[in-house]
Amino acid sequence: MIDFPYLSDIVRKTDSKILMLVADGLGGAPAPDSRRSELESARIPNLNRLAQASSAGLTIPVAPGVAPGSGPGHLALFGYDPLRYLIGRGALEAIGIEMELRPGDVAARGNFATIDADGNLVDRRAGRIASELAAPLAERLAQVNLNGLNVAVEHVKDYRFVLRLRGEGLSDQLTETDPQLTGAPPLMVEPRAKGAAAAAAAANAFVEHAREALRDQEAANMVLLRGWSVAPDLPSFGASYALMPAAIAAYPMYRGLASIVGMRVLKTGGDFAAEVRTLREHWDEHDFFFLHYKNTDAAGEDGDFDKKRKALESLDEFVPALLDLKPDVLMVAGDHSTPSIMAAHSWHPVPFLLHSQWTLGEGVDRFNERDLRRGSLGIFEAKHIMSLALAHAGKLAKFGP
């Protein structure tokens, strides 16, 4: 939608409000024993009732069969073609914690990880160590010295950190060190383009220094580097859609993404209850809100079916509070699916509903993958969500004579 050539001719400013609730990793897949997904197994009466009075369907974040990262998945929800506007995870994390990224800087998202005596990965997230344990380790890594380069390392949250390299001749055209599985060693960084060999050598040198610096640790004794990237430049979300947008997210990466597209990032607490309080406190100040819920994705990535089911049930309890704000358009979406049976992001289409005064229901009884296939929206590309939201909010004029 952001690239619709006549967008500026048809968007219009109104007083109506749009609320986009994004449950990270929302979609799932049936467990072999029960043949039901996490959504089908969860007790979610509020979401089910909302689905019965909404337009509904399933979204494809990038393309059929493609398992997207959170960055592309969210960009699609905001109306950006994720194949055109690709942002690396490193830049998202860096901007999310307000780390300076100058032209020429290269950033990577880092995980503390656990390797065994043979150098093979035992845990790609070091047991999801808490921030109070990880932050001092990030400070250790910040002491790594690479000749000719400025090295900066900052803790993000839990087992995550950001690495920023600054110097001459750097490139973000680098492969990642995370093999995406355990039982194998971390990968070497390889150049993906001509002129990236020096940056690859620097990245590998950092990993070796980091391994030595963490040698005394039992869990976080290695690092994995992903999402090499530079500072991005995207069209403004607010200017393009004639909106005053705000973002509420506890995790830095999502705050970074919202900041990149030009949303005002509101300070909030560390859990979803705090996010909802922040939404209520700022409700009169903006006409578009992006509200992020992380717990669904974390449980799916852990391969914990019951934990994800409970995360969905916890989210359901907040639906009445969101409806009490009386948004003109309320959307419940996901950036991708994270089935617990796969313990990873997947290609499965993602549940979606849109509720407004114009939606009276269309025979969908429950908010889950199987029932939503019967919705009027069918299976469609997520990048079209914003045009639907603007239309239901009365913010799009007629196109053409």
Task: Walk me through the topology.
Elements: H1 7-10, E1 18-23, H2 38-41, H3 45-52, E2 55-60, H4 70-77, H5 89-96, E3 106-115, E4 121-123, H6 131-141, E5 150-157, E6 160-166, H7 197-213, E7 222-229, H8 237-241, E8 245-248, H9 252-260, E9 264-265, H10 272-281, E10 288-293, H11 295-301, H12 305-316, H13 319-324, E11 329-333, E12 350-355, H14 369-372, E13 378-381, H15 385-392
Parallel strand pairs: 1-10, 1-11, 2-13, 8-9, 8-10
Antiparallel strand pairs: 2-12, 3-4, 3-6, 3-7, 5-6, 11-12
Helix pairs in contact: 5-9, 11-12
Short description:
The protein is an alpha/beta fold and 401 residues long.
Our count of domains comes out at: 2
* Major β-sheet profile: 8 strands, mixed
Beta fraction of the residues? Answer: 15-25%
CATH superfamily of the largest domain: Alkaline Phosphatase, subunit A
What is the rounded Rg?
21 Å
CATH architecture descriptor of the largest domain? 3-Layer(aba) Sandwich
Number of DSSP-assigned strands: 13
Report the uncertain regions. Answer: none
The name CATH uses for the topology of the largest domain is Alkaline Phosphatase, subunit A
- Write down the CATH class of the largest domain: Alpha Beta
Estimated helix fraction:
25-40%
The coarse overall form would be: globular
pLDDT averaged over residues: 96
Strand order, sheet with most strands: 9-8-10-1-11-12-2-13
The number of helical segments is 15
Structural class estimated from helices and strands: alpha/beta
SSE topology string: HEHHEHHEEHEEHEHEHEHEHHHEEHEH
